[in-house]
Amino acid sequence: MSSRHLFLMGGSPPFGQRFGRMFTKLACGADGKIAILFLEREGWEVYMKKYTSALIPNGAENFCYLPLSADPAESFLQELISSSGIIIGGGDTESYRRFIVDSETGECIKRMYMNGIPVAGFSAGALIIPEHCIIPPIDTYKRQHLFLKGLGLIRDCAISVHFTKWNERGNLKAAVSKTNVATGYGIDDNAGIYFHNEIRADNEGSIHIYKNRT
């Protein structure tokens, strides 16, 4: 089994300086192709520069921009599976989950991750990656705390993003208790956690850790 690399980012892009360097190196630098999965909206082309700005100085040159949909074209899937790094963007978490979890896109991501392709999720992208996709009330249409199935790249943890900005301490502790996972990670804006083979190996910026005492 290949060594696996996962970056969970607590806010909007870009990567921090160190994680940008790490992700670029893992995605093979100038020789690789980094796929950016996002929800298409007006002005998206300009916004993509936020994702690439911390990667280009470290040698990344080749990017493919893949707008998500319920029924991705074969060309979309071929671009994805030919990539050497994957970034899942931020925005409407429920839509990201609907288009990725339990879809052919999600299955491709899981296979690629298990084969050593580094995966990074920003905000919504980070929330859908664990086994439990936990969406706080502030981030849902009906202002409800949602506990849904996630992509499952990492298990036995609860993830909270925009932790300080959204005042997520109570929600994260409740999520740890409800899902009975070992650890809750609260990730601030401009911060991230790097997992190597599903074990927290590094972090950049401010993170908050809660252990399940039960």
Strand and helix layout:
Layout lengths: L4 E5 L7 H10 L7 E5 L5 H9 L10 E5 L6 H8 L3 E4 L4 H8 L3 H11 L4 E4 L1 H4 L4 E4 L10 E4 L7 E4 L8 H11 L3 E5 L4 E5 L2 E6 L2 E5 L3
Parallel strand pairs: 1-5, 2-3, 2-4, 4-5, 8-9
Antiparallel strand pairs: 1-10, 6-7, 9-12, 10-11
- H/E topology pattern: EHEHEHEHHEHEEEHEEEE
Per DSSP, what share of the residues sits in E-state strands of 2 or more residues?
25-35%
Q: How many individual β-strands? A: 12
Task: Give me the number of helical elements.
Answer: 7
The residue fraction in helices comes out at 25-40%
N-to-C CA distance: 33 Å
CATH topology: Rossmann fold
How large is the radius of gyration? 16 Å
CATH top level label: Alpha Beta
Coarse structural class:
alpha/beta
Low-confidence segments, ≥5 residues, pLDDT <50? none
The CATH H-level superfamily is Class I glutamine amidotransferase (GATase) domain
> If you average the pLDDT, what whole number results?
96
Task: State the CATH architecture.
Answer: 3-Layer(aba) Sandwich
Question: Would you kindly provide a written description of the structure presented here, covering whatever features stand out?
Answer:
This protein is 29% helix and 26% strand. The protein is built from seven helices and twelve strands. A seven-stranded mixed beta sheet has the order 3-2-4-5-1-10-11, with helices on both faces. β8, α7 and β9 form a beta-alpha-beta unit. The mean pLDDT is 96.
